[in-house]
Amino acid sequence: SDTTSTALAHTLFHLLNNSHTLTQLTIEIRSTFRELNEIQNNKALRDCQYLRACIDESLRLTPPVAGLMSREVLPGGLDIDGYHFPAGVDIGTCHYALQHNETYYRDAFKYDPCRWIVSGTNTAEDVALAQSAFCAFSTGPRGCVGKAMAYMEMTVILASMVWLFDIRLAEDNPLGQTGMSAMAAQQQRDNQTMDKFVSKVFGPVVEFRAAHSFAV
Prior knowledge:
There is one protein chain. By secondary structure, this protein is an alpha+beta fold. The chain has helices spanning 2-17, 19-32, 43-46, 49-61, 95-98, 124-132, 147-164, 182-192, and strands at residues 71-72, 78-80, 83-85, 90-91, 165-169, 194-196, 198-200, 206-210. β6 and β7 form a beta hairpin. The two termini are 26 Å apart.
């Protein structure tokens, strides 16, 4: 789907502009799976915490559906945070704005997959707080019915790419995303992203080199 391909493009972008995260993900995948055909929708794949964290952090920073999904105020109106909205008004919260709110995410503009994993520096409460504002698939009864399938597709595809290939940003990059800091590249990508309900993105332009000497 458009949202899945956009999410994978964003995830590759963040991994390639934060090379230590790509290194850590590569170690996790290649130490977990000995053969390509082992990468399936199974327990071993679901246990790859860092893989899922890389995807979730990308979905947080650059959600494929970045804008608001509005709702119409019902008869009687609605009061929110001291403001009154009369019946018939469409209101909503932009996914991008919520998922960059420092109330829920420290260093909200930093790509940090570790914020989704409990560790010595990141408590279970920290992870729960981050999850409470995560709405890349929307929430409640209007949440995406294809969420489980999307995660299955993204984890299998990304793990397979990382197992098969060494990946880097193309040196002759028409999008100008090489030789920049991670933050500058991210800001440029935000500016290049078009929000048309489902985001329209450009790149990243990458190069793949087989990581194994045998043909697949």
